[in-house]
Amino acid sequence: MDLVTLKVPAKITLFGEHTVVYGTPAIASTIPIHITIAGRMADDDFIKLEIKQGLQFKINTITVYKDEIKGEIDQENAKRFTGYAVTAINLCEKFLGISEKSRGYIITIDSPLPVGVGLGTSAAISVGITTLCLTLNNYIKMDELENYRQEIAKLAWSVEKLVQGSASPMDTYTISLGGLRYIIPSIPISYPVDLSYELPIIIGYTHREGTTAELIRRVRRVRELHEEIFSEILRTVSLVVDKARKALLDNDLETLGTLMNINHGMLQALGIVDMKHAMLAHILKVAGALGVKTSGAGGGGAFIALAPSKTIQEKLISIAEALGATIVSKSLCKDGVRFVH
Ligand code: PMV
Questions:
Q1: Is the C-beta atom of 118 inside 6 A of ligand 1?
Q2: Is pLDDT larger for residue 30 or for residue 65?
Q3: pLDDT exceeds cutoff 50 at 195
Q4: What separation in Å is there between the alpha carbon of 125 and the centre of ligand 1?
Q5: Is residue 87's pLDDT more than 70?
Q6: Among 305, 326, 313, 331, which Cα is nearest to 33's?
Q7: Is 257 in the pocket of ligand 1 (CB under 6 A)?
């Protein structure tokens, strides 16, 4: 098979991150910012990864043979991308019954986002490389991608669990299936939340301290020390998520904003909201935001703010940028992983 090229969207969690790891529902959406992954089979049995990332377009070329990485990886981000990519290939080959690694791949990953800012980049790599590997090995038929989305999501979720130790199915199901989704992790299943209007939101990120795995461990510690209180937080967030789904469908922005603020408060109680986000949330609310919350694993990283109107949306963007945030989108998107023909 010739070169296969994929566009994989990043994602944002609107409600229910962290608690989703313990089985409560969440709402997440893909956003219109994409990682491009292109790959083909190689003549030898090496995995060659070329990773371009960030706006500075630094390129790392990495060669992997039977899990052993050859050559220096000079950027932490590239190292993390490599972990997800190689695990995805190994898992797909196992799934396909390829027992000994006898196949080589030449893959380019081009990401406008650094890994680990809370926008689902690791899940995007897991979903993208899983789709690529299953396609290059003739399992996925390119014109029938719709039939494979659940299977891709499930396999990519296993990649996340292997690399991180612990992960919910939220990110991989959202990125594989696409759009705004209500996720029930215990099954797992995800339902589309179809909006007939555009949410006036801003999506951005600040510097993040700590990896997703570390932040998940931090929350687990709170659970170990305060089991009863933790159960109450789970119950509250469950309620928030279900009310948020209704508010989204009803175009009730006022309620939605309040629910975002409550969810942010719960994340703060779990200890994953950093000072910069606490400050951003406060200032953006004073400037007119209906709701502001940390999104994703926290420790800084991604956040979302809901504006009551387009004018306030622009004002919030200027303020957030002045406070050092990078704004990546003003809207959600509908697509999941897709081929570029
Ligand atoms: O920050 P991200 O994009 O890695 O999102 C992590 C979301 C968590 O709920 C904290 C973990 C998970 O697996 O759902």
A1: yes
A2: 30
A3: yes
A4: 14
A5: yes
A6: 331
A7: no
Tens digit of each residue's pLDDT (9 = 90 or more) over 150-170: 999 999 999 999 998 889 999
Please state whether the predicted TM-score (pTM) of the whole model is above 0.90. yes
Of 39, 44, 43, 37, nearest to 66 (Cα)? 44
Q: Which of 243, 7, 231, 220 is nearest to 108 (CA)?
A: 7
Residue 101 has pLDDT above 80, yes or no: no
The Cα 201–Cα 30 span in angstroms is: 13
Q: Which amino acid is at 116?
A: G
Q: How far is CA 260 from the centre of its chain?
A: 18
Question: How many CB atoms are closer than 10 A to CB 324?
Answer: 11
Q: Per residue in 241-261, is it b (16+ CB within 10 Å) or e — as a string?
A: bbbbbebbeeeebebbbbbbb
pLDDT of residue 100: 65
d(CA 133, CA 101): 13
d(CA 132, ligand 1 centre) in Å: 23
Location of structure tokens 């937080």: 233
Q: Is 252 a catalytic residue?
A: no
Decide: 26 and 185 in contact? Cβ < 8 Å: yes
As a three-state string, the secondary structure of the chain is CCCEEEEEEEEEEEECCCHHHHCCCEEEEEEEEEEEEEEEEECCCCEEEEEEECCCCEEEEEEEECCEEECCCCCHHHHHHHHHHHHHHHHHHHHCCCCCCCCEEEEEEEECCCCCCCCCHHHHHHHHHHHHHHHHCCCCCHHHHHHHHHHHHHHHHHHHHHHHCCCCCHHHHHHHHCCEEEEECCCCEEEECCCCCCCCEEEEEEEECCCHHHHHHHHHHHHHHCHHHHHHHHHHHHHHHHHHHHHHHHCCHHHHHHHHHHHHHHHHHCCCCCHHHHHHHHHHHHCCCCEEEECCCCCEEEEEEECCCHHHHHHHHHHHHHCCCEEEECCCCCCCCEECC
pLDDT at 148: 98
